Amino acid sequence: MARILLTLAMLILTAACGRSDAPQDTGSLPGSKPNAAPPTADGEITLTGAGATFPYPLYAKWISEFQKATPKVKINYQSIGSGGGIRQITERTVDFGASDAPMTEEQLAKAPGLLHLPTCLGAVVLTYNLEGVPSGLKLTPDAAAHIFLGKIKKWNDPAIQQENPDVKLPDKEIATVHRSDGSGTTKIFVDYLSAVSPEWKNGPGTGTSVNWPGGLGAKGNDGVSALISSTPASIGYIELAYAVQNKLTFASLRNKSGKFVAPSLDSTTAAAAGAAARMPDDLRISLVDAEGEGAYPIAGFTYILAFQEQKDLAKGKVLARFMKWAMQDGQKFTNDLHYAPLPAAVVEKVNAKLAALVGPDGKPLLAP
Length: 368
What we know:
Blueprint (H helix, E strand, L loop, with lengths): L1 H17 L26 E7 L4 H14 L3 E7 L2 H9 L5 E4 L5 H5 L4 E16 L8 E2 L1 H9 L8 H4 L13 E5 L4 H13 L1 H4 L14 E3 L1 H11 L3 E6 H6 L3 E2 L1 E3 L5 E2 L3 H7 L27 E9 L5 H16 L15 H12 L13
Parallel strand pairs: 1-2, 1-3, 5-10, 6-7, 6-8
Antiparallel strand pairs: 3-12, 4-8, 4-9, 4-12, 10-11
């Protein structure tokens, strides 16, 4: 009898040790490595995503609102940079990735079946820390490229001063700030520099990481924002939302039509005019140096990256629902956070991609 009781006790202890009642961690910890979590015993499903810092303020809002409507769903998005997002979704260590930079053909070859789903539009701004100089400093494409090439070294250089005759520019060395991590924000910015400057195109070139001619590096849009704020006479590139939230000053740029345009929702939207008509089937497209008098020249889509065939049926259905919600209800949150909503024609294209998402059984994840 004692032996039977002992055996029963051991079985009960083993079952207790194997059970976990700890809540799922759904926080977002930039820089940490995400781990996909399985559905819990009570039906709760956790999705894990990682990638671009560019849209992080918007994605955080979307996740919060979506979880209010679907309390059994937890979404953990980690803003580790576009390069990290591409790497993690390629390795399938997350349920979805995020990138401002469309993946290259070489990258896509390692992740067959991966879809690009545009979520919103954003502007990359040149923000600076110059005492007494408000937002609106005018920069030409050549001046922007030469600053980051290290050829314009001082703020009162004639190439800057002649476009700003009423601004007293200091005789100070320019400190440039760039991203130190693989970044879609970098990709958009250097795509622009490559479009307007043959010297840049044939030098540092384009990519999520480039060989910068000089300057200071920082991780993430938040890191670059902080470094510019703490470094007098500095200039760097960040997403518009970060500049506004951190009360940083930023430049107006001369666009392809010869007009100096400040970054804004309207000028970002203007950059996307006609984008849907020339968008390829895989939805990968660059918007830099766009046509149009009102177009801000450094703008781009940001993307969620997801496999067309979802290996986990329950998670796949939740991801499809979340993206469908983002295309409908989620777009209304863009303006307040300084992003531009997707044009209706682009939303239609994204919805067509979502309708093609399938589970492991090959059946559509969204009900017709």
